[in-house]
Amino acid sequence: MSGNRTFTMIKPDAVESNNIGNITQMISDAGFSIKAMKLTKLSRVQAQKFYAVHKERPFYDELVEYMTSGPIIAAILEKDNAVTDFRNLIGSTDPSEAEDGTIRKKYAESKGRNAIHGSDSDENAIIESEFHFQPSEIV
Ligand code: IDP
Ligand code: MG
């Protein structure tokens, strides 16, 4: 059975372009409830660890640079089928390939600077949530 929680980050480009409110509204309108949320800034070490799975990829250094370039919103979201439904809501990694009505189609600048993160599995949703939040920070 698929889980009911996922982890997201509103990335530095979307915070910088004042889209925290618009994106949070889309998330709420899609039926997700917020179990934890904070404005924070990733250190270089945190960004390197969070994206360690990509460390051999050519875009890794650029990704770490981008994710540490400004504040982010980190959040845990709850809904039936959370991981899959949230990946559908955010759309493809590259906004030029994302479907109309998705968060990335509306707010992402490029494949690199793509506005929002969503966990890709229930297992990673738990790992990523625990990376960013203490149990006492989750309602
Ligand atoms: P995802 O965020 O849709 O799961 P991943 O392939 O897991 O996409 O890549 C993680 C993040 O790395 C992307 O969201 C994006 O910010 C960045 N990224 C992925 N592919 C590229 C690329 O080809 N060039 C630059 N940045 C990329
Ligand atoms: Mg991914």
Question: What does this 3D model show about the protein?
Answer:
This protein is of the alpha+beta class. The protein has one domain (5-134): Alpha-Beta Plaits (2-Layer Sandwich), CATH 3.30.70.141. The chain is built from 7 helices and 4 strands. The protein has a 4-stranded antiparallel beta sheet. It starts with a strand and ends in a 7-residue tail after the last helix. Bound molecules: inosine-5'-diphosphate and magnesium ion (MG). Inosine-5'-diphosphate is lined by residues 54, 59, 62-63, 93, 111-112, 114, 117, 120. Inosine-5'-diphosphate binds at residues 54, 59, 62-63, 93, 111-112, 114, 117, 120.
Number of strands: 4
Order of helices and strands: EHHEHHEHHEH
Helix content: 25-40%
Strand content: 15-25%
CATH 4th-level superfamily: Nucleoside diphosphate kinase-like domain
Low-confidence stretches: none
CATH class category label:
Alpha Beta
Within the CATH hierarchy, at the fold level, what is the topology?
Answer: Alpha-Beta Plaits
- Helical stretch count? 7
**Mean of residue pLDDT values:** 97
Kindly give the count of domains: 1
Lateral strand order in the biggest sheet: 2-3-1-4
